[in-house]
Amino acid sequence: MNGDSDVSVGFIDSAIGASAVPESVRALSSLPDIDYADRFTLSTDADAPPERWARAMFGDVPSAAELLIWRGLLGLRLSPGRSPATVAGWRIGARGDDWIRLEAASWFLTGNLLVQTAEGRVSLATFLHYDRRLGRGVWPPLAVVHRRLAPGLLRDAAARVAIDPPRA
Questions:
Q1: What is the residue-averaged pLDDT of the chain?
Q2: How many structural domains are present in the chain?
Q3: Predicted pLDDT of residue 165
Q4: Which residue from 4, 14, 21, 46 could staple onto 158, CB 3.0 to 4.6 Å apart?
Q5: Which residue, among 121, 114, 102, 104, has the nearest Cα to 161 in the 3D structure?
Q6: Do the Cβ atoms of 154 and 1 come closer than 8 Å?
Q7: Of 57, 97, 105, 40, nearest to 78 (Cα)?
């Protein structure tokens, strides 16, 4: 139980590597080839549509830390300002009833963030394609940090979903 709200937050399951992420999930990526994949799934009774979960995780505009990582280290071209077509500067590439895919690219890699909801669960999957060799050198050390931060990101989002009323 989270002390800040009445939402029940449970176990986080993780899958690291393209072969560990289910094919049905990988199929939602827009990438021609997946060089890196991970997926973190949180069991929770907090309920919201996928876009609301994505905005609870990342906000409408990127934070200073996200800008440092996404723009500074990864060189991702993010949209400025708030927009219904973006989440934290990532373009909404596609969506379904229980998922939303965010897309961004730099000159050396292309990425997707996939947020999925299912009965009592929310998942965040990250997919990367290295467009240049530099991606293979830049991402692995950042992936270690990414995999440490993702569980907390999901837990914090569950607390936000539970306490923030839906936007009109």
A1: 90
A2: 1
A3: 58
A4: 46
A5: 121
A6: no
A7: 105
